[in-house]
User: Fold this.
Amino acid sequence: MVFSIRKWTSRMLFIVIFLLMLLIATGGYRWLIDAIAPIDPYHKPKGEAVRAFTQQHGTPDSGNIADRLRWFYWYGE
Assistant:
């Protein structure tokens, strides 16, 4: 069996260039997603900022019909 060094080096060079271009492309996509992605609205405020709302836990089962209707339209449950 004859091994051609020129053929094997060209194959290895192709694989190395392919992997290098793959890493560049995936890094570029990752950078693009980070650049385009919206800011997380649920992050903790920095500095002197204060959140202006609180989350209610549980359903208003014991409330009146207006509260239950608002709950249905707000959360779709």
The two ends are 72 Å apart (CA to CA).
